[in-house]
Amino acid sequence: MNASEQFRELYRKTRNAALANEAQKTIDGIAEIVRFLSDRYTKDVDTLMGRAKILYWQQTFGAYSQIIAKYGLSDRRVKKLFGFIVDDSLPSFNDIVKGAENVAPVAPVAPATPAAGGQGGKISIDFLSPSEKKWEKPEEPAEPVPVKPVEPRYPGATKPAESVAKAGKSFDPDSLEEFIGQSHVVRRILAEIKAANKRGERHLDHILLFGGRGLGKSTLMKLIAKHLGVRFEFMDCSQFNNDVASKRAIQKFFQNISRLEEPVVIGMDEIHALPKHIQTSLLTLLNDRNFVYLDENGVNHVIHIEDFTFIGATTDPQDVLMTVRDRCKNLTFILEPYSPEDLRKILVNKFTARGLRVTEGALDLCVGRCRSSIREINSFVKGMDTLAINADTDLVDEAVANEYFSHTGIDPIGLTKKDLEILYALLENPSGVMSEDTIASRVGLDLKIYKSEYEPYLIYIGFIQITGRGRGLTERAMAYLKGSNPPATPERPIEPPVSPESSADLPEVEIPDTANETESVPGENKAGNLNGDNK
Fold first, then answer.
1. Using alpha carbons only, how large is the chain's radius of gyration in Å?
2. Measured between alpha carbons, how far is 480 from 416 in angstroms, rounded to an integer?
3. Hey, what's the torsion of the CAs at 312, 313, 319, 320, to 10 degrees?
4. Which of 93, 94, 230, 427 is 20 to 30 A distant from 333 in Cα terms?
5. How far apart are CA 384 and CA 362, in angstroms?
6. Calpha distance 441→371 (Å, rounded)
7. Is the distance from CB of 521 to CB of 11 less than 8 angstroms?
8. Which one, of 530, 535, 527, lies nearest residue 175 by Cα?
């Protein structure tokens, strides 16, 4: 193992300890890094300047160890050290290792000492990945708007509290390995991609994904294209109608793909919404790679797309033609609801990506209400982030979560006010059952919205049953509406945001050049990192 690999391993281990909130292991890892740098540097350098460099590392990293011991790993200086947040006023790990001249050493820790570092100039963020660089602080306006100081509201604050800095991460997973949940889909797709690579192909068999909203269908499409190394073209079919405009839209979609003449993944979401004759027109494309249509003048047109993977996604598989489903039979998947453990991992990672800490109690409140949907989780995290910023804190606890849910009106099992309207409409109906269109009309919903957004979850939790006469309430639903709540979900331990075997994007950290060599630790992107988002 060369010096670069050794340094990479030490840095990865220390950063993973910080991600897992293990303070002592992080301190021990920093000490190992200092020893490594000192040993390697003294092999070739025995000068006054060399000894000063080693002393600088020892003092600076030693001060950070004191910060971790006193304030914990949530301190902003520590977050910037490992690249969890972007803050040009603080030194990064890369700055300290290189001994950048515009970075002042961190002062010894004392309760009233302001956060040190970043004095004398702007810190370079060249080590950041392109996705992080977009968060670089913009130039100040010519005449800054005066801001009234805000008193700190949380222990340990050493200056007026600021907004929680964002890490520049959207939490979209960067690879299939990072995708949390749906392991039966991910394993099979990875095996298919591996086989395609061995055959020298850049496409797979056609794929169908069946599952409710928020289970990750669209995200899986994008990641499959990324793993294949091809372009991704996406169409949302939910607004298609049986009209000329819809026919022209899909014709133009395939024409544009064909003109580029390169491998592509064609993702079509809510494919069940396509009129039957348009679904039928897909058959020649799936069979022979030709999309055939007649124009208004009766002229036949053939659009050839040579190298593509078709991926259809739907929440209503019964509305997809059997002939289309047959063409995708080899790779047809039913996406499953996320387990509570997976939901907790996703929540912890999403909060962490926004620079927030979260308590176990707050996680319990979120897991019970998220309807096993990543879309709901995204809304929760954004809303609680706003509350935390306005409260000048980086901690999301039960109080913050309860305040958010009191504003949104989401009850402990994820029911909204509109869900309760639906249930009470059935409860108060003398016959006890209603057709789906009657229910939608009674509560003021479009039938499509009722069927896609509300009914699936009410059936999933066992509150609505479908009979030959229509929709009716179950005994479980009636008991809940009358005040006898279903059993609560058992408590589960908080999962760390990243497992020790994997890591988030690592900033590029240079080892000092002591033998006319330049070695660096390139950025990596492994499973379970901070920027994963399942849709």
1. 28
2. 14
3. 20
4. 230
5. 10
6. 24
7. yes
8. 527
What residues form DSSP beta bridges with 301?
293
Residue 110 has a CB neighbour count (10 Å cut-off) of 10
Which residues lie below 8 Å from residue 534, measured CB to CB, with a gap of 6+?
173, 179, 180, 181, 182, 215, 216, 219, 346, 374
By the 10 Å C-beta count (0-12 exposed, 13-18 middle, 19+ buried), 97 is classed as buried
- Amino acid in position 461: I
Separation CA 392–CA 66 (nearest Å): 24
Give CA–CA dist 140/19, Å, rounded. Answer: 32
pLDDT, mean of residues 118-123? 30
Write the burial class of residue 101 (CB in 10 Å: 0-12 exposed, 13-18 middle, 19+ buried): exposed
Q: What end-to-end distance do the CA atoms of the chain give, in Å?
A: 39
Spatial neighbors of 48 by CB under 8 A, at least 6 apart, are: none
Kind and range of the H or E run holding 214: none
Phi/psi at 301 (5° precision): -125, 140
Coil vs helix vs strand at 302: strand
The answer to whether the CB of 521 falls within 8 A of the CB of 13 is: no
Distance of CA 247 to the CA centre of its chain: 34
Q: Measured on CA atoms in the order 58, 59, 65, 69, is the torsion positive or negative?
A: positive
Q: Provide the H-helix boundaries in 155-313.
A: 183-199, 217-228, 244-260, 276-288
- Gap between the Cα atoms of 66 and 23, Å rounded: 11
pLDDT of residue 148: 36
Distance between CA 145 and CA 131 in Å, rounded?
Answer: 29
* CA-closest candidate to residue 530, choices 292, 318, 351: 351
pLDDT exceeds cutoff 80 at 150? no
| Degrees to nearest 5, angle at CA 55 with 53 and 58 | 115
C-beta separation of 525 from 174 below 8 A: yes
Q: How far is it, in rounded angstroms, from Cα 322 to Cα 319? A: 9
**What is the rounded distance in angstroms from the CA atom of residue 341 to the CA atom of residue 495?**
8
Lowest mean pLDDT of 9-13, 361-365, 509-513, name the range: 509-513
The closest alpha carbon to 170, from 206, 222, 213, 210, belongs to: 222
Asked if 164 and 354 count as a contact pair (C-beta separation under 8 A), the reply is: yes
The pLDDT tens digits for 398-454 are 999 999 999 999 999 999 999 999 999 999 988 889 999 999 999 999 988 898 889
CA distances from 38 to 34, 206, 319, 514 (A): 6, 56, 67, 11
